[in-house]
Amino acid sequence: MRTVPAAWLGCFALLCLGGCSLFGDDDSPVEPPAELTDIEPTLSVREAWDYKAGSGSEKLGLALRPTVEGGRVFVAGHDGEVHSLDVETGKRRWTTDTELALSAGPAVGQGLVVVGSSDGLVTALDAADGTLRWQEQLSGEVLAAPALSPTAVVVRTVDGRLYALAPDTGRPLWTAEQRPPRLSLRGTAAPVVAGDLVITAFDNGKVAAFALRDGEPRWEQTLSIGRGRTEIERLMDLDATPQVIGPDVYVVGFRGRIVNLALQSGQVLWVNDMSSHAGLSVDWTTVYVTDAEDAVIALNRSSGGELWRQGALRLRRLTAPTAVGRSVVVGDFEGWLHWLDPVTGSFRARHRAGKSAFVTAPVGAGELVIAQDENDRVYALRAEPRG
Predict the structure, then answer these.
(1) Count of structural domains within the chain
(2) Residue 28 neighbours by CB under 8 Å, 6+ apart
(3) Which end of the chain has fewer beta carbons closer than 10 Å to its terminal beta carbon, N or C?
């Protein structure tokens, strides 16, 4: 299987969605990213702390993203170090050097901190002090955060396999597989544990549910079907992690659709034609998604109807949106973070944390926004109403 570098996604999105050539109909250059224009901020953003988690991973398209639990934030750098920090101050609690090229995680739960590496090694550390609990070699690179439950650590690999590992030993409990296409975008959707089910999406355009206990298939839906004359035109990846809230599953794909499925049956409840490789997030009333041309869109969670669309960040290689407090936050390729109003989509604030791209979605921790850039620097930011 060949993967498409993340830096090419904007060009491929235009090429696949619009049917245009790489240089347009009139041989003009590819459309550049939108320039930022002045806004009238209603929030003041200040930096609470920042922390260097590693030496950086620019252009690698990794899935390293902070995770918050129990007053701590856990972060990992591509050069192998995993860190536990105080969420309010950024003060380090512990650091463990795995000596691996880390590519995904950390995932935290059940007293474990779990990370995946580029050579397919999954490592579990003790959440209290960072000591090694176990390691397990899998069949391919891990480019999505594992999912943790009391009975299994669930991991996706880039070769289309889904593994359930024993939380105490890392021993494989069961595996499932969907054959990937010959060409796919770099990245994989993370698995999600919801009750007694594991939900995940695959590069062949399918989303499926498996029994957490033994991996038995429960249901499967095809969201994206590859069409076209070339392999690029037939890209149909589902790299965005499914979102589960209550009895509903929300999934979006590249050159596909955004779909609301019933958790227990996989029944389609509503469909909206939309393409995304960045992903989506969901709160109790609204689905927020970054589409393939980097518009941020809000949909009614019950019907899928569009509520608003913010298109001023076109082609700025946005992350998936994250709802934090009374804002929706996205990062871009120049190190900017943007706060949007969740009701109208208008800009509330903008802050440039650094000069490296954000490729994974920010994380909310109370009123804090925590984001990790490609240089493995982690920023904690607080946005407050302007006085």
Answers:
(1) 1
(2) none
(3) C
Task: Provide the pairing of β-strand 63-64 with 102-109.
Answer: parallel
Tokens for 41, please give them.
């901020």
pTM above threshold 0.85: yes
Task: Give me the CATH number covering residue 184.
Answer: 2.130.10.10
CA distance 61 to 2: 14
Q: What digits encode the pLDDT tens for the residues 104-147?
A: 999 999 999 999 999 999 999 999 999 999 999 999 999 999 99
Burial class (CB within 10 angstroms; exposed 0-12, middle 13-18, buried 19+) of 183? middle
Range of the domain at 381: 2-385
Q: Which residue type sits at 236?
A: M
CA-CA distance, 177 to 162, in Å (whole number)?
A: 6
Q: Does residue 168 sit in helix, strand or coil? A: coil
Q: In a 3-state reduction of DSSP, which class is residue 198? A: strand
Rounded to an integer, the average pLDDT of 172-194 is 80
Measured between alpha carbons, how far is 5 from 186 in angstroms, rounded to an integer? 6
The span from the first CA to the last CA of the chain, in angstroms, equals: 54
If one compares 230 and 174, the residue with the highest pLDDT of the two is 174
Which strand ranges, in their side-by-side order, compose the sheet holding 112-117? 63-64, 102-109, 112-117, 121-126, 132-137
Half-sphere exposure of 30 (CA within 13 A, CB side): 15
CB 44 within 8 A of CB 384: yes
Q: Is the Cβ–Cβ distance between 141 and 157 less than 8 Å? A: yes
pLDDT digits (tens, 9 = 90+) for 291-310: 999 999 999 999 999 999 99
Per-residue tokens: 107 = 């995932």
Nearest-angstrom CA–CA distance, 283 and 94: 33
- Cα–Cα nearest to 257, from 244, 246, 245, 268: 268
DSSP one-letter string for 76-135: E-TTSEEEEEETTT--EEEEEE--S-EEEEEEEETTEEEEEETTSEEEEEETTT--EEEE
